[in-house]
Specification:
Elements lengths: L9 H9 L4 H13 L14 H4 L22 E6 L2 E5 L6 E7 L9 H8 L2 E7 L7 E5 L4 E8 L4 E8 L3 E12 L4 E8 L4 E12 L4 E8 L4 E10 L5 E10 L4 E10 L5 E10 L4 E10 L7 E10 L5 E10 L5 E9 L3 H9 L4 H13 L9 H18 L2
Helix pairs in contact: 2-4, 5-6, 6-7
InterPro entries: Fe-S_cluster_assembly_SufBD, SUF_FeS_clus_asmbl_SufBD_core, SUF_FeS_clus_asmbl_SufBD_sf, SUF_FeS_clus_asmbl_SufD
Organism: Candidatus Phycosocius spiralis
Protein name: Fe-S cluster assembly protein SufD
């Protein structure tokens, strides 16, 4: 029997019931009993009130996990359902797959603690040699996912994850450790209905000469928050994160990142772009922390967004916190409307207004994907954005 603080809301009680009976679940339960779910009173959640989003309880799951896109047909597919996870396809040599109990994270509260608490088991992927086959993580509606990835020195892995449920609470926690010279490339697609709660957190430790590259596209949900915490602990570490969001109706999407430079000669490049219309809300929070010993850090962070209609909301908070004196760091943030001159130019050439707007928004947002080296992956992201624009704008 769980003793519950009388101040907890009905939604928080429902979350307590949904947590797994594991050490991680008990840790998350203790955190909620002590502090409740994050609200706008918490600085990190001031534009993303999780308690309010869950005030009516945990939505019943519905929808489909979707098909595996053509560009990932050769991938090893791992399906995460409310009952557990299963594998489909062959795996490369040098990939060890194990399962272990979901353990609590140390001194952590928030989305990552919840994601750990919802998952009864953690899937462990150990990479001991170069991988030619991507791993496709497919989350079914309402399914928890916890994955721990360990890349040994000079190895590589491409990881793809999707969350497409119409309703329900889906959570994901990805923990990755990159040894010397390892490379992890991650692609992520999120799209949820107006009864979907989507919580994801990625924690990455980047060793000497290692590379982490992540690209994501979010269409939001009733509440969607994607967090990244990256720690560069070895000289020559590289972190590159690209993110895009397209939001309409009453959808909500929050892209939050914190990059910590702990070693000298490390590099971060972040680019986020978005477009929001109707009563939707887009949130960007990005912090780059350069510790005292991380001399010769090169860190760049940019966020640019379009407000397409009155009533749309975009909140942005870019931050630099620097304690080293030999660094090159910069950040930029712009929020505006469509270029009227560019729109007039297209209209003058016979392009209907809605189509012209869609073309301009597509060119603006999909710049995030322009530097992807794989043409089929770039086309996949661009096609997702184009389909959304045709249904909402064009």
């Amino acid at each position: 029997m769980v003793l519950v603080a009388p101040s907890l809301a009905d939604g928080e009680l429902a979350v307590l019931e949904a947590l797994a009976p594991t050490q991680a679940g008990e840790a998350a339960r203790a955190s909620i009993l002590a502090q409740g779910l994050p609200t706008k009173r918490n600085e990190a959640f001031k534009w993303s009130d999780l308690r309010a989003a869950l005030q009516d309880g945990v939505p019943k799951p519905s929808g489909s996990a979707g098909m595996v896109p053509a560009c990932w047909q050769d991938a090893l597919v791992i399906d995460f359902t409310p009952e557990g996870f299963g594998l489909e396809g062959d795996k490369d040599a040098g990939l060890v797959i194990e399962s272990e109990e979901s353990l609590p994270l140390e001194d952590v509260v928030g989305v990552e603690s919840l994601a750990a608490g919802f998952a009864p088991r953690a899937l462990v992927l150990r990479i001991t040699s170069q991988q030619s086959r991507p791993i496709f993580l497919r989350r079914h509606p309402g399914a928890p996912m916890r994955v721990r990835v360990e890349l040994k020195a000079e190895t590589n892995l491409t990881l793809v994850d999707t969350s497409l449920g119409e309703a329900g609470l889906a959570s994901a926690l990805i923990e990755a450790e990159l040894a010397t010279g390892a490379t992890l490339t991650r692609y992520s697609l999120q799209q949820g209905g107006n009864k979907a709660i989507d919580l994801s957190h990625c924690r990455v430790t980047i060793g000497a000469g290692a590379t982490y590259e992540a690209t994501s596209l979010m269409f939001g949900a009733h509440f969607a928050r994607a967090e990244t915490l990256a720690r560069l602990i070895g000289a020559g570490g590289y972190c590159r994160i690209r993110g895009a969001y397209l939001l309409a109706g009453s959808s909500h999407a929050d892209m939050t990142s914190k990059i910590i430079h702990l070693s000298p000669d490390t590099f971060t490049e972040e680019l986020f772009k978005g477009a929001v219309q109707d009563r939707a809300r887009g949130v960007f929070q990005g912090k780059i922390l350069v510790e005292r010993g991380a001399q010769q850090t090169d860190a760049r962070q940019n966020h640019h967004a379009l407000m397409l209609t009155e009533g749309a909301q975009i909140d942005a908070k870019p931050e630099l916190e620097i304690y080293a004196d030999d660094v090159q760091c910069a950040h930029g943030n712009t929020i505006g409307a469509l270029d009227e001159e560019a729109l007039f130019y297209l209209r003058q050439r016979g392009i209907p207004e809605n189509q012209a707007k869609a073309l301009l928004i597509e060119a603006f947002v999909t710049e995030v994907f322009d530097t992807l080296s794989e043409q089929d992956v770039r086309d996949w992201f661009n096609d997702q954005a184009r389909t959304w624009l045709k249904s909402r704008v064009g």
